[in-house]
Structure formats: C-alpha cells, structure tokens
Amino acid sequence: xxxxxxxxxxxxxxxxxxxxxxxxxxxxxxxxxxxxxxxxxxxxxxxxxxxxxxxxxxxxxxxxxxxxxxxxxxxxxxxxxxxxxxxxxxxxxxxxxxxxxxxxxxxxxxxxxxxxxxxxxxxxxxxxxxxxxxxxxxxxxxxxxxxxxxxxxxxxxxxxxxxxxxxxxxxxxxxxxxxxxxxxxxxxxxxxxxxxxxxxxxxxxxx
Length: 207
Ligand SMILES: Nc1nc2c(ncn2[C@@H]2O[C@H](COP(=O)(O)OP(=O)(O)OP(=O)(O)O)[C@@H](O)[C@H]2O)c(=O)[nH]1
Ligand SMILES: [Mg+2]
Prior knowledge:
The protein is α/β, with parallel strands linked by helices. The chain contains six helices and seven strands. α2 crosses α6 (about 190-200).
C-alpha cells in the first residue's frame, strides 16, 4: 500500500481565518481606540444583527437566538486583520425592565454617539415584519445629528410576499428618502454578497 506523505502539510502555516472574535466589551476598552476601521450593526432586539454578521463573514461567530436579548456585550469581530464588525446589543425588547432597557440604550449611545469612536458606517437593521419602530426613529435622529453615515438593511425579507415586500420598501423610501436601504435576508442570503463587498471595502479589504 502506498504511504501518504503528510510531512508536507505538517509544516505549512495554517491559513489565516477570515474573521475572529476579538472581544466583547461593556465599557471603555483599548479596542475602541484601535486605529482599525469599524462598521457597527445596530437595531431592535431580535431583528437579526448577529445573524447578519455571521452571514457576511460566512462563519457562525456571533451567537444568535430566537429569544430577544441574546447579545449583551458590544462584540468586536476582527475581519482579515484589517478592521472590525461590531455587533451591538438590541434595544426595544418589550419584556425588558425599564432599568435594563435604559442601561442598554446608554451603552449603545455611548459607543455610537459618545464621540469616542466614529464607525465608518452604521448598519441599522430592521425586521421587515415589524417595520421601523419609535426606538429606531430616535436613534436615526441622533445619528443624523452627529453626521454618521448609515445604511438600512430591511432584514427577514424572505418572510414577505412580493406585494408585501414592495409595500415595505416603498414605505422606507418615503419615510427616509436620504438613507440608503437594501432588502436583505441573513438566513436566505439575499444581497449578502453585495453588502459584504461594500462593507469589506470600507475596512480596506478588496477582492
Ligand atoms: N426568516 C429569517 N429569520 C432571520 C433572519 N435573520 C435572523 N433571523 C432569525 O431571527 C432571530 C434573531 O436573530 P439574531 O441574529 O439573534 O438577532 P439579534 O438582532 O442579534 O438579536 P439580539 O442579540 O437579541 O439583539 C433568530 O431566530 C434568527 O434565526 C432572516 O433574514 N430571515
Ligand atoms: Mg445579537
């Protein structure tokens, strides 16, 4: 029987992973002053922020759950050593106590609007079955005031019929004529490639 030559493989340096979990933070941390560019994912709880991060990276790094409130920390995922995808906790979860909701709101605003960092882009995600909520509107107003670039992802578009889809998108267009929106599905991968190319370019990753 022919012997397999495994010595060659043993000495090869392993390929660098596309992305890795760098850190989860709950307050100030040196990682936010890192010079590498950041793209942040925000939105109501359960809209699919962590699922979107995973779909874009092509690996299940961010923890997801059908129960709202899964992500508690601000999670930094390093992409190709060039920059970070930042997965934030969700707001607006009805069953959360007022105190807990306020704490999360402050935490999100500290990161997004505290002036400590300026992400290259804030990806605001909505669940198309729920639509834009008042919490989303409040956040959009704050981000607009601070001059943050925003991209709206209309996630879970796979759940809508053709007619519903057209209506939801027309509604977004009407309410936010100045914000770009993209119909999206993290689970069915709709527009994942397009969004990935856009965000990777912002992190300085090409091809
Ligand atoms: N049908 C459908 N379900 C999705 C999609 N994206 C996410 N989900 C589901 O929505 C649920 C919530 O997803 P997560 O990614 O955990 O949501 P999140 O916004 O990170 O939630 P929090 O961390 O609690 O703020 C999970 O059950 C996902 O499988 C999508 O595009 N289509
Ligand atoms: Mg999450």
